[in-house]
Predict the 3D structure of the following.
Amino acid sequence: MKALITGVSGFVGTHLSELLLQNNYEVFGLSRSQPQNKDIIFTSCDINNADLVKATLERIKPDEIYHLSGAAFIPHSYEKPLEAYHTIVNGTLSLYEGIRQLGLDSKVLFVGSAEVYGEGIERPFDETDLLHPSNPYAGAKSCADMISEQYFRTYGMNIIRTRPFNHTGPGQSSDFVCSSFAMQIAKLEKQGEQAIGVGNIEVKRDFLDVRDVVKAYCVLMKKGTLGEAYNICSSKAIPISEILEYLFSASNLEDWNVQVDLLKVRENDAKIRVGNNSKLIHDTNWAPNYNLKETMKDLLHYWRERLRSL
């Protein structure tokens, strides 16, 4: 079985490629940067390079395509909205047009985002809820989500859409909240300092371990219904402050000082965002393996190891 991952060198692409390799897939990857795993058959390619994308598809003829490409750090999209739309929207079109023009029968998993739902509501978001994007990244993902449904309906392409909520784990960039906390705490352990900078830690989010998320992607590829959208989430929201407590409890620190860093406070940040995962569970029997306390221990260990090697 041949699988192609766009954005293979990223945080999620790294975990997904490892899982697929463990399951005896021949894994091909597209990305602008080289992945660390040498078992991946890699092509250096910007997803907007339609000719190279098409040529790669023609050469590989993948059975499965996991479309992850697109920068995921939301604050950057405020600064460069055109770049966010270009990469996410036009990149998705480049991939789908390559598949369509070649007449490939590849099954595609489009990885969107729960950001498309916008502000939190009093209940968990369902896949039938309207999209109300409140930042450029979410707007671009909403467009690509709709394009994915349109290509399924118009051309009969084998596309399944996903809307993952927050996910974290070893290897995540310190741009993201959990990894930022873990990196700072690992530095406090190493350097003997006590202050940690945070944003708004009272907002509540629905978190999963990235290893459970990529498992969901794989089971959806096998059991998901073509043309449908699926939330990837835990169906539970916890305050960011609780994540911080998990990390401190896993550390060897006895005292610390939490300080609000205004640069880390986001505009239009929803107070709560939680999803309903019942459709995912009903269609695939997926269940998470990791609890967040384990995830935070693993994430802190990752940063301890990284700092030790510096």
